[in-house]
Amino acid sequence: MSTTPSPPAADNSPASDPAQRRREQRGWYTYDWANQVFITSVVTVLIGPYLSGLACSEAGAAGDCSQPGLVLYPLGVEWISMHPNSLHPMVTTVAGLLLLVMLPVVGALADHTQHKKRWLFWLAAAGSLCVSSLYFTSDYQLAALLFITGNTFYGMSLVVFNAFLPEIATSDERNRVSVTGWAMAYLGGGLLLAAHMGLLASADSLGVSEGHAVRIAFASVGLWWFVFSVIGIRMLRNRYGRLAAEPGPRDWAPP
Asked: Does domain 47-59+81-240 correspond to CATH entry 1.20.1070?
C-alpha cells in the first residue's frame, strides 16, 4: 500500500558543526567580494560620466554639454525630452523606483523558497551579464537600459544573499560574519576599482580610447561578479523555514 510522503521538515538553523558553518561563511564572504565591484566601479565612478558622455554626443554637443539648448528624446517621442546631463539622474531614479517595487517581492520569495542558492545564482548571472553587455554598445538608450536592469538584479540578489546570514551563523557569530563580509566586499571592490583607475590613467599609452577603457572596465566587473559568485554559491547550502516547508507552486525556482 502506497503512502503519501511527508513534507520536508523546516530547519533553517545553522549547522551544528563549526567547520561546516565556517565553509558556508566563506562562501557568503566570497559573494560579498564578488558583487561589491558593481557598486564601487560601475555605480559610484563609471556609469555617470559614461552615460552623460553618450547622451551629450547623441545631442550634438561639441565638447560643451552645458549648453541649455541641447535636447534628448530618450523614449523616441518629442513630448518626453530632457537635457543630456539629466539622463544619469533620471536613470538612477528609475533604477531606485524599480528596486522599491521589486525588493519586497524578492524578500517574500526568499522566505518561501527551498532553492535560495538557485535564485542567488541566476540573479547574479543576470546582473553580471547586463554589466558585461555594456562593453558591446555605445548607444545611450541601450546602455541606460542595461544599467537599470543590472542594478535591479544586483539589488534582488542582495535580498536573497542576506537571507542566508541567519542560516550560516549562530546568534553570537552574526556580527562578526556580517562585519567580515563588509570588509571583504570593500576590499574586493577597492582592488578592482584601483585596477580600473590604472587602466583609465594609462589608456593613451595602451592605445585605447577612454570610452573603450570604460567599456573594458564594465566587462571586467561582470566577469568578476560572475566568476566569484559561482565560487561562493557552491559553498552555501539550501535551508528553509516554516514558510517554505510545504512544496507547491510558490516553491518554483529557475532551472
From this structure: no
